[in-house]
Structure formats: structure tokens, C-alpha cells
Write a structure and sequence with these properties.
The chain has one domain. Helix content is 97%, strand content 0%. The longest helix is centred in the middle third of the chain and has 112 residues. It is rod-shaped.
Length: 142
């Protein structure tokens, strides 16, 4: 009986080894699948990261171009503002000169029409007109 017990024990141990081997094999296959899926996920994530980096570079270049364009437009705006200021100054000067010329023409027309009294009142004021008339009378008396 001892031989039967030995054989039974050896069979039992052999079956346990086979079961353990099958379980290890199943575990290995499962881990291989997991590793494969992780590799695919990792490759996909790396590809996505590369795409994001490329997009980031493109956007950075576009941003720099837009900032350069903004600087150019700001320079143009400053130049235009200076031009407008110069033109406004020239317009003011031209209007002042036009007023002076208009006044000179009116004065000349008054001198031509012989309306000296109105001209004197306008430029000399009431006291100045009186002084002018006194001077004119004195000049005529002499």
C-alpha cells in the first residue's frame, strides 16, 4: 500500500504542477495582452503629444507674425496721427491767414469807398477817433 500511496501522491503532485503551470501560462497571456494594449495606448499618446507640439509651434509662429503686424499697424497709426496733427496746424494757420487777408480786403474796400469814419471807429475806438479828428482839424488849420 505504500506504493499506491506513493503513486497517488506523485500523481497529485504532478496534477498540481500542471495546474500551476496552466495558471502561470494564463497569467502570462493576460499580461502580454495588457502590455500590448498599454503599448498601443502609449504610442497613441506619444503621437497625440507630437501633434500637440506641432500645433503649438505653428501657433507660436502665427502669434509672432501677428505681433509684428500689430507693431507695424501701431507705427502706421502714430505716423497718421502726426500727419493729422500737422494738417490741423496747417489748417489753423491757413484760416488765420485767410481771416487776416479778409480783414485787409475789407479795410482796402473801405478806404476805396471813402468810408474812413467807420474804418477809424473800428480800429481806433471812440477815444482814438476823437484824437484822429483833432489831429486832422489841426492839420487842416495850419
Amino acid at each position: 500500500m505504500e506504493d499506491k500511496k506513493k503513486q497517488s501522491l506523485l500523481r497529485y503532485i504532478a496534477i498540481m504542477f500542471v495546474v500551476a503551470f496552466v495558471l502561470v501560462l494564463i497569467s502570462l497571456v493576460g499580461q502580454t495582452r495588457s502590455i500590448g494594449q498599454l503599448s498601443e495606448s502609449s504610442a497613441s499618446a506619444l503621437q497625440r503629444a507630437q501633434e500637440l507640439q506641432d500645433t503649438n509651434r505653428e501657433l507660436s509662429v502665427e502669434n509672432e507674425d501677428l505681433e509684428d503686424r500689430i507693431r507695424q499697424l501701431e507705427d502706421q497709426l502714430a505716423d497718421l496721427e502726426n500727419t493729422v496733427s500737422s494738417l490741423e496746424t496747417a489748417l489753423t494757420e491757413a484760416q488765420t491767414e485767410q481771416e487776416e487777408q479778409k480783414t485787409a480786403i475789407e479795410t482796402y474796400e473801405q478806404l476805396l469807398s471813402g468810408d474812413v469814419a467807420e474804418l477809424n471807429t473800428e480800429y481806433l475806438g471812440p477815444n482814438g477817433l476823437e484824437t484822429y479828428e483833432n489831429l486832422t482839424k489841426e492839420g487842416n488849420e495850419q
